[in-house]
Amino acid sequence: MVNMLKVLIAVIVLLAIIGLALLGKKIFRTLIFKTAKTPNNESTWLMIMTGLVTVGIAIAYYVNNDPAADPVMWTGLVIFFLGGLLQIIARRQLHEDKTFEERLSSGFEAAQTGIYSVLRHPNKTALLLIVIGFSMIMGSIWALALAIILFFPSVLYRISQEEAVLLDKFGDRWLDYKSETKRIIPKIL
User: Fold this and answer.
1) Is residue 109 part of a domain?
2) Quick check: is 165 in a domain?
3) What's the domain count of the chain?
4) Which residues pair with 119 in a beta bridge?
5) E strands, 97-153, where?
6) Contact 160, 94 (CB under 8 A)
7) For the segment 27-73, what is each residue's pLDDT rounded down to a tens digit?
């Protein structure tokens, strides 16, 4: 029987190696960087807490039931890996040479190239993929339900807080960019 926890750890190590290779010396800067500083942190804490509850439920289910690996778990592993890869790629593009605010104030070119020309918040998309994939890997329908019912709305709330700050700061340029891109799902949302 395949232990999905061991496979998950191997995938996390692989993502860490890919992250080091793509981000190099900038890896710590990209991990602590915020794109929009909101006046309060309630949306961040809400997102963190709902994410931790979801992950905690998934781990508890896996430990208590030790489910056999099935196609849903393997699909979750692929989703998890793609989410991690998207996170690395988005952070690399965002931090290549300037901060997001510097690029925005100099003409908004970061938001008009690469992944940011399609999605306004690829990091949040990646985070959703990671949490949903993790819930699937652990085989927990309850964690998957929590990811959809609690975590997804908390991410949308965080996005709305960030976008309010960006609208105040960049005005019409932000509105133009917003009209040409989607929040987290290309061509849908």
Assistant:
1) yes
2) yes
3) 1
4) 182
5) none
6) no
7) 666 655 555 666 677 778 888 899 899 999 999 999 898 888 899 99
Burial code (b: 16+ CB inside 10 Å, e: under 16) for 168-180 equals eebeebbeebbee
pLDDT of residue 96: 66
Q: What is the mean pLDDT of residues 82-101?
A: 77
186 part of a folded domain = no
Burial class of residue 127, CB neighbours in 10 A (0-12, 13-18, 19+): buried
Backbone angles phi, psi at 97, to 5 degrees: -145, -20
Containing structural domain, residue 66: 43-180
Residue for token pair 């988005």: 90
Separation between Cα atoms, residue 89 and residue 18, nearest integer Å: 10
Instruction: Name which of 26, 25, 42, 44 is nearest 34 in CA terms.
Output: 44
Q: What is the DSSP letter of 97?
A: S
Query: Does residue 90 lie in a domain region?
Result: yes
